[in-house]
Write a structure and sequence with these properties.
With 451 residues, the chain is mainly alpha-helical. The chain has helices at residues 8-13, 32-39, 45-56, 64-71, 73-101, 106-152, 168-184, 196-213, 236-247, 253-259, 265-294, 311-343, 351-371, 375-402, 415-438. It is globular, with a radius of gyration of 22 Å.
């Protein structure tokens, strides 16, 4: 879901064309109390739990059965539980780092700990994660909306011109240019965050649909029943990338912390524990119920495993595809604001620059989505590279830098952070190497889609 911490309110304080004399306000001066007043107006714990659960249960959830297939059934379940626990810890670690550094954003923390290189690193990975999300959302639009149109109008492909509405590439281009692009041009795009309620409903519909319809699919669509309860697969590191993509919501942690009516570490810890537990239950439900049916045939987008005429699944496809229309602009907003903050931090707002970057970023992601069919590979690359850095490496590295600087790394207080950072580095390097290598081997042929 939207990755708007340290970015959302930066745009509102950037100098506009109407008030060029006003000074640009750096992100370090953004106050969490002001953020809370604008976003949630002092919500309770349940409000914050809903926000965080919604942030976690994003588009990556439909790739989790694929992750189970890659890692093996039992190893995949262990990874889901372990990475959920690590995510719980690192989310809380970011808030602790903010208190130790006196900063109020992820970028501010990295800048405080590692200077300009830290600011550059987190900016790069934020951009990469958001851009990868845009590509994934475009792929989802191509995987869902044409299916729904063909199921409602089964003979539409025979009608001249209108038959284009059944073509994957045309639908991606049409939805991107006619819906997502106008929404992306808004400067105050945070108003679209109200659509997050629709996203949460969509996730519930998808989980329920897969749970109900999975056992009812025709035998020719089911996978090998002998491959159900495998112990270890050959794609463990790719699975870690997919799971990391699904769980990462670290960009939102400080905003959710600030949205609490009484923002204390104890209350935020409770919010984090409840949210990650709810998310784990939903993720395990979808992953297990889908994988035991499709096993070795499980695709990166689990909805593609179902037939085109399945009514309940088509409803899920429609809800999910519709949600992508508004979610994609939110990710583009992140990409654009990263560029604005890093390269044009002290310059006034410029409409030509705004339109240029919006158009360039959106068209780039649209082209990738049009020629790439395999959502699983996109989740592997984005999750293995960007999500592991943002969720595992950076929070642990900042903690090591801020917590008792003179204390040895092998002490009880620092050793978990060392292990977490090392784990993130290993996963980042190996999963990125394997995912990119797949594109140049026979295993990657199915990722290119030109029909």
């Amino acid at each position: 879901m939207p990755l708007l911490v340290g970015l959302l309110d930066a745009s509102t304080v950037r100098r506009s064309m109407d008030s060029p004399e006003s000074a640009y306000v750096a992100e370090a001066r953004i106050d969490l109390d002001e953020l809370a007043a604008k976003r949630v107006a002092g919500g309770n714990i349940l409000d914050s739990v809903a926000n965080m659960a919604n942030s976690i249960l994003g588009a990556g959830i439909i790739g989790l059965p694929y992750a189970i297939r890659q890692a093996g059934f039992f190893t995949g379940l262990v990874l889901l539980v372990v990475l959920c626990a690590v995510t719980d810890w690192t989310i809380r670690l970011i808030v602790l780092n903010a208190k130790l550094s006196g900063q109020t954003s992820y970028i501010g923390i990295m800048n405080s700990c590692f200077g300009s290189s830290g600011r550059a690193a987190v900016s790069f990975f934020q951009f990469a994660f958001a851009f990868g999300g845009m590509c994934a959302f475009g792929i989802i639009i191509g995987d869902t909306i044409p299916h729904v149109i063909r199921s409602i109008f089964p003979h539409l492909y025979q009608v001249p011109v209108l038959s284009l509405l059944t073509k994957r590439q045309f639908v991606i281009a049409l939805c991107t240019v006619c819906v997502s692009y106008p929404l992306s041009l808004y400067r105050d795009i945070h108003k679209l965050s109200r659509a997050s309620g629709l996203a949460l409903v969509g996730m519930i519909i998808i989980v329920t649909s897969v749970l109900i319809e999975g056992p009812n699919v025709s035998p020719d669509r089911k996978g090998n029943p002998q491959a159900r309860f495998t112990f270890l697969g050959d794609g463990v590191f790719q699975a870690i990338g997919v799971i990391s993509f699904a769980f990462v919501c670290h960009h939102n942690s400080l905003l959710i912390y600030g949205s609490l009516r009484t923002p204390t570490l104890d209350r935020f810890n409770k919010v984090t524990h409840i949210s990650t537990f709810i998310s784990l239950i939903a993720c395990c439900t979808l992953a297990i119920s889908a994988y035991v049916v499709f096993t070795d045939r499980t695709q990166g987008n689990i909805l593609n495993n179902f037939g085109p005429s399945d009514t309940l699944i088509n409803i899920a496809r429609f809800c999910f595809g519709l949600n992508m229309f508004t979610t994609l602009p939110l990710e583009l907003f992140v990409c654009r604001e990263v560029i604005e903050q890093y390269f044009f931090e002290s310059e006034p707002f410029n409409m030509q620059r705004h339109v240029f970057f919006t158009t360039a970023i959106l068209c780039s992601s649209m082209i990738i989505s049009m020629i790439t069919c395999d959502l699983g590979v996109m989740l592997e690359i984005t999750g293995g590279a960007s999500a592991t850095a943002l969720a595992f490496i950076f929070p642990a590295a900042c903690y090591l830098k801020l917590k008792a600087p003179g204390t040895p790394w092998y002490t009880r207080t620092k050793l978990p952070a060392v292990v977490c950072a090392a784990f993130g580095v290993v996963v980042l390097c190996i999963s990125l190497f394997l995912a990119l290598g797949k594109a140049w081997t026979p295993a990657g042929k199915a990722t290119i889609c030109m029909d």
